[in-house]
Amino acid sequence: MEPNPQTQKVLPSINPMNNPKTPQIINEEEGGVYNPELLLSNWTNVSFVLMTVSLLFYHMTRRRTLEMDRRLAGVFAVSIIVMSVVFAIQSLVIYAKRLGRLKKKTETGFIQQEIGISHTYIIVNSILIVISVGIAIVILLGSFYGKDM
């Protein structure tokens, strides 16, 4: 099935290097499909920043750089981790939907290659989500049942 040239535009990539060999496909009929890996990467970065802030905050409270009850600090840190996990899950769902639209629309080699490596992105991000949840559990258990340092 040939794409309709009137409804499909090929634009240069918006990545920092602006590489013209990696086009963005924008399909107006299906709500817009465009460079899903870039968007997944951006949201994964947001998730990592939140995780880093959470761990730094928790560490500062445990080492008494910030004076705070350890249980309250644990709750705050886990709340930030929960936001991180929500962003990560949301980005994976959106990524999967965009890939689904790409699968339906075209069968070009470029798109097939992107779909082929998409499973790796999904698996790695899913593992990171599980690790984040594990860290949150360790923080909660340490906050409520651990000893003061």
Structure description:
Helices cover 67% and strands 5% of the residues. It contains three helices and two strands, in the order E-E-H-H-H. Helix 1 (36-62) packs parallel to helix 3 (109-145). The model is unreliable at 7-18 and 22-33 (pLDDT under 50).
Index terms:
mainly alpha, elongated, 3 helices, 149 residues, 67% helix, two-stranded antiparallel ribbon
Order of strands side by side in the largest beta sheet? Answer: 1-2
How would you characterize the largest beta sheet?
Answer: 2 strands, antiparallel
Count structural domains: 1
Going by helix content, strand content and strand pairing, the class is: mainly alpha
Enumerate how many helices there are, as a single number: 3
Indicate the radius of gyration in whole angstroms. Answer: 20 Å
**Uncertain segments:** 7-18, 22-33
- Cα distance spanning the termini: 66 Å
Helix content class? 55-70%
- What gross morphology would you assign? elongated
Give the integer mean of the pLDDT values: 79
Oligomer: single chain
Topology pattern, helix = H, strand = E: EEHHH
Give the strand content: 5-15%
Number of strands: 2
